[in-house]
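User: Predict the complex with NA7.
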Amino acid sequence: MTTTKPLDHEVILIGAGVCGIYQLLRLVELGVDVTVLETGDGPGGTWYWNRYPGCRFDSESWTYGYSFSRELLDEWHWTEHFAPQYETLRYLEHVVEKFDLRKYMQFGQKVERCVWDEEDRSWTVEIAGGRTLRCRFLLTAIGLLSAPTLPAIEGRDDFAGPSFHTFYWPKEGVDLAGKRVAVIGTGATGVQVIGKIAPEVASLTVFQRRPNWCAPLNNAPIDTDEMAKIRARYDEIFAKCAETPGAFIHGPIDKKFWESTPEERRAIWEELYKGPGFGIWLGQFREVLMDEEANAEMSAFVAEKIRERVHDPEVAEKLIPKDHGFGVQRVPMETNYYEAYNQENVRLVDLSETPIERITETGIETSDESFEFDVIVFATGFDAITGAFDRIEFVGTDGQTLKEKWADDALIYLGIQSHGFPNLLVVSGPTAGSASTNFPRAIESIVDWMTPFIAHLREQGITRVEANSDAEREWAEHIKELYQMLLLRNAKSWFTGYNENVEGRQKKRHLIYNGGAPNYRARLGEVAAEGYAGFEMS
Ligand code: NA7
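Assistant: Here is the predicted structure with NA7 placed in the model:
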């Protein structure tokens, strides 16, 4: 099959975030003619967009950087164990400059529609503004949490002052000092914002629909000596991340929950609560995330902590989740979050008692009160994982769109390719190993698989590759089974693709690979060893 219309590029890669940057680098090394289309005005993806106060890693910084270059590891100094957004953005910009990748990137290019041309075995990519580009293979690195969602509250656009979703926090910054601020939403983002801005604003009113189980981040600075020690341990650090299910430095302990005494369990949790990052969530007994009873005991421990930290018992009770246990939704890591509620200028409004009725020109009205604000912050989350795909119209064989195909659940073999969408390769998306893990670690695994796969296609002169529908169905079954192992299957959160603000997303879906990063990696390896089983190539 020959292409009758000229191709602009062999590969178009959408997205210049953590995933796109590394995939680009490897394609350039391979000698592929590739261009990157990115909506933002610079690289960085998540770390380019989310500029809200308090935005920072929940992964240890030194586990989040790319591992492929010793030189890069040796020259970069993370200043904190959990780096703030601006430092991470600087890091990613540094990677782009160091490896001279900017010349392959086109910024301010919002992809709106991608259409498969069966005759030519190519994709036509339509960019906002009317430009189109054609390529043989289309790769997406469009982010897992890059489609922010605003709540459908009456009068949302009536507010006269500044109001924005945290994802679109103004680049030039917002001076909140002395302002009356509302924050709607208490997920990982809201919790970071609240802890950070509470001390500087005149008043902060938090509108909470459902509380989350939050735990202390326990961040600390890294000085030159400590950074040198971390550098010396990089091999050991990445080896540890390679063996844990979440690809974090924290993995489940060997001790069995039911073989330890309540006192022993408590002592372990006490230590973890004082320790850094996700240790309290992912570095403990496996059973806590799998067994209702074990989970209830752990939840009671964390509830006690909340009661200790929040002075007003009524407020403390409102901050303790009653509809789900610890760790079955994403655990927001906090700094000063619970203490913020002890400040005179901070107030919690429980929307389960007094729901928001409307947003007005001057503030927010609940069922029993009218509030005036200078700024309203929406920390209301994302149309997670598939949202970014839904916002681009991908038209595959027979005119079917990906959005239509994924209306009920995401069907995509290995999280890499969806049947009916030949030559469309997803580097980061639903059901792959990246969504539930320390992102760069999982991304490196996928890119290190994807790159030889593309090399194979080129070497063999393959111009069309499509995932087999049987392989796709089996993978979907496997993904569903993996959900059954974990309590998170019951959660109404982005882990199950649930979002009240998006039409049709009030139903649980299976968007995450819950089998652990090592198993996902092993599966990719087997598929490659079997000559890319499950992919039809011609
Ligand atoms: P999340 O974790 O999805 O949190 C969104 C929050 O917004 C959550 O507390 C929601 O309450 C709340 N929300 C959503 N819609 C409304 C309305 N209409 N009214 C009131 N409150 C609402 O998103 P985040 O940005 O915090 O975190 C996403 C990920 O980013 C995080 O996991 C990290 O990996 C990074 P709900 O719980 O649905 O009742």
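The first strand starts at residue 9 and ends at 14.
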